[in-house]
């Protein structure tokens, strides 16, 4: 493999002159530049990305840690992150932790060894690894996306789940439903609790009761929606409507309702949360609370770039405003 010294020798110039031409950081006369570029082409020379990164103290690489999930919401956010990285000339290294603390630690170590310029964490559980990260790498730009509470100085991007939960429940109430159940995520998950609180507030404001049996903590997965809905259907007085706190669980809810010989939108209303791409292809199409997944990924990269460029110094929390998307899974009671 050709080196910069080989190029310099063939072109009859110094290695520093070759470096100036390759990095375009100092004037070099056109005849000399042409000789160097000719030598580069003849030798098929490719500058070492590692060497350049060591010299420039940047790798133009972003790391992303993602908690394993069947939820398509994650994949759609990652797509937005990848597109934004590509547009800015950055590479993305994605590590899926499979919900395993040891694997998360190993993945984090790998990303740090790769000298990533910044890090995006998208995890739905509290993890001690995050505290180690902020303690020993305080200068590494980090953006937290989505749900978990973390101890550390970083930028956080999340949707206003309290408002989203209220919006979903108020919509069901406005359609005439009174016996409304809520299937939310894990109990130690901040966004899951906030969506549940939004549901509770909307029910209380409307003078409606929200029985404990109709408030179920699940796992934000397809299976969680299925099992929770099966549990609700066994109640002496099953609910008329279901607020599932993400669209993935709504898929499981649909299955349970269909297995019971009932129809979504007619016998039981269902509203989801996230507005994943699959939502509009469900039968019937799912009414849901919209989160802009592509915009979420882009915002994460934009925020990380601002911190890398020293445009911001203090940690920030950026909230996205949820919006209702009406489809056919909610009828009129």
TrEMBL record:
SMART domains: HTH_LACI. The keyword Oxidoreductase does not apply. Transmembrane segments: none annotated. GO terms for molecular function: DNA-binding transcription factor activity; transcription cis-regulatory region binding. PROSITE patterns: HTH_LACI_1, HTH_LACI_2. CDD domains: HTH_LacI, PBP1_PurR. Residues 2-56 form the HTH lacI-type domain. Keywords: DNA-binding, Repressor, Transcription, Transcription regulation. This is Ribose operon repressor. The lineage of its organism: Bacteria, Pseudomonadati, Pseudomonadota, Gammaproteobacteria, Enterobacterales. The gene is rbsR.
